[in-house]
Design brief:
Layout lengths: L2 H17 L4 H17 L6 H45 L4
Length: 95
């Protein structure tokens, strides 16, 4: 594969991140295509720029994973509060 093929894959993931369309299965499929492309890439004169772009993309993915973890924890906390409220209502007996 050419360097351009790898750049197109990176651009695809960048666009997905911008649109907020990154799901686990899609990311796994993208990673598989990326690994295949990386194994056969030519590593031409633009290679260092491609590597820098990939590293920046990795940082963005890490930040997105951190954001999603925080959101997951917030949702779990809200669900726990709702469960506590439901138990409290079950025990409430009006006069």
């Amino acid at each position: 594969m050419s360097d351009l093929d790898l750049v197109l894959l990176v651009e695809d993931l960048e666009q997905r991140l911008e649109a907020g369309e990154v799901e686990g299965e899609a990311l796994a499929a993208w990673r598989s295509r990326f690994d295949e492309a990386l194994a056969t890439v030519e590593r031409g004169p633009e290679w260092s720029a491609i590597v820098a772009r990939c590293k920046a993309l990795a940082l963005r993915l890490d930040a997105e994973a951190d954001r999603l973890s925080i959101e997951r924890d917030r949702l779990r906390s809200e669900m726990d509060l709702q469960a506590h409220g439901a138990r409290a209502l079950k025990g409430y007996k009006p006069f």
